[in-house]
Amino acid sequence: MAKILLIQPNKWGRGITSIWIPSHAAALKNAGHDVTLFDCTFYKDWAFNEIQYNTKNEQYAPTDYLNHIKFNKNNIFKDLQMKIDSFDPDIIFCSGLSSHIHGEGEYVNIQYGNELLKNIKTNAIKIGGGLQPTAKPEILYEKFSNLDYFIGGESELTLVELANKKLDIKNFEETKGLIKKNNGKTIVNFPQEIISDMDKISHYDYSVFEEQVFYRAYNGEVIKAVDYELSRGCVYTCSYCVETTIQNYYGFNETTKTGVLKNAPSYLRNKSAKRAYEEIKNLYEKFGIILIRCQDTNFLTIDSNVLNELATLIDNSNLPIMLYVETRPEGINNSSIKLLKKLKVDGVGMGIEISSEEFRKTDLNRFPSQEKIVDAFRLLKNAGIKRTAYNIIGLPNESEDMIIDTIKFNQKLKPDNITVAFYSPYLGTDSERKSKINGDFEKYEFNIDNQLRTVTKSTGIEKSKLEFYKTYFSKFVHEGFEDIDKLKREFGLK
């Protein structure tokens, strides 16, 4: 038996049950290993209060969320050292893959983990996983010198294998998927096999979290919620999406002219309906979870037989639960609406990104028409399902007028909730490769302290103006542009 310390380096200052934690905890425990979690979420000297930030931006409705949690005033580094001294782990593992915060969270968690371990004294082997090891293994030892090894791709079963080999360093270093350093060079072992059967991972273990991490602000209320996954993979290949990093790692890179993965069936995997229902039922009965936030990249591309069976199980139950899912406008029709209602889906998030249909096609590799997006939002509204519109600003060659057009398009859609993110050419994506070709990549910034996505300097729009539109995007959608000049002056813009 090995002892494994998982680190949740969350700096968002709000509950996040990153999916990698319960999945890795379950796999390790099922193999007979001892697992514990060090969660950074509520350390006063560590966390940024994202709830307050996004409430101010009107992306979150005001709630009494802060009354449900208690921040830890201890020094986080001292507490981590005490945890390590008392638990005496063989392996310390930190990842960001399948994080709640898609993109930035999945990349920066390893950065935060490396920061946490800088002055820590331990004999444990320190391992990092997630998207940075998957996308750019050659930069790891330069950027994250406090970690000994890294794992690319899906790491649950690989970490179990490493825990089994903890006393055999030679076999340890020969493990598929492992990234190591030898004579100053980064060595990447052959990728491990993709986890084709998700039921091979034991029922995800949420007991490693403290209770207050389950509290979430949702549509002006505070309820208990968790992040959950029913499936892995996506059939689409949007140029900016972190999902393509994992596709490329496992060799799934042939696409159609409309951006669909050719060999999608072997990449898109899901749990069985019975397994998913049992997990959801347990989350309610054991932890009082009401909202299941499904982090599946595209919920409606999951095997229809599985979704229909799960819908029947949920519909026949007395569980007072609701689901939040993410999908694409192409999948919304009268038939899928009936399925979503039967699944007790309360909210659906869909990417709008930018109002220009042509820009979406040529720059983002996304192909839904304006009419399809409008129709999807209409059908969901008529069904009483809340709609969240995902938007991006700061795209290369984007103008201020284009941002205003995107706001006007949101006005037409009338979403219940709106999110706005700055464009980011994430490592390993087609957007990053194009940025490097165009000589633009070094013009991007990544501010990890306030959790803002990368801000581009190459749009022709100054950073302060981009921040202005992010701050007031929701306000403009709901109230129009009548006060825009006044708000610009108050923001310090001419």
Structure description:
There is one protein chain. Helix content is 37%, strand content 17%. It has a seven-stranded mixed sheet, with helices on both faces. A seven-stranded mixed sheet has the order 8-9-12-13-14-15-16. A two-stranded antiparallel ribbon has the order 10-11. It is an alpha/beta fold. The chain folds into two domains: 3-188, 3-Layer(aba) Sandwich (Rossmann fold), CATH 3.40.50.2300; 229-490, Alpha-Beta Horseshoe (pyruvate-formate lyase- activating enzyme), CATH 3.80.30.20. Strand 6 (178-182) and strand 7 form a beta hairpin.
Record the SSE blueprint.
Layout: E1 3-8, H1 20-30, E2 34-39, H2 50-56, H3 76-87, E3 91-94, H4 104-116, E4 125-129, H5 131-135, H6 140-143, E5 149-151, H7 156-164, H8 169-173, E6 178-182, E7 185-188, E8 215-218, E9 221-228, E10 231-232, H9 243-249, H10 264-267, E11 269-270, H11 273-287, E12 291-294, H12 304-316, E13 322-327, H13 334-342, E14 345-353, H14 357-364, H15 370-382, E15 386-393, H16 400-413, E16 417-422, H17 430-437, E17 444-445, E18 455-456, H18 463-479, H19 484-490
Parallel strand pairs: 1-2, 1-3, 3-4, 4-5, 9-12, 12-13, 13-14, 14-15, 15-16
Antiparallel strand pairs: 5-6, 6-7, 8-9, 10-11, 17-18
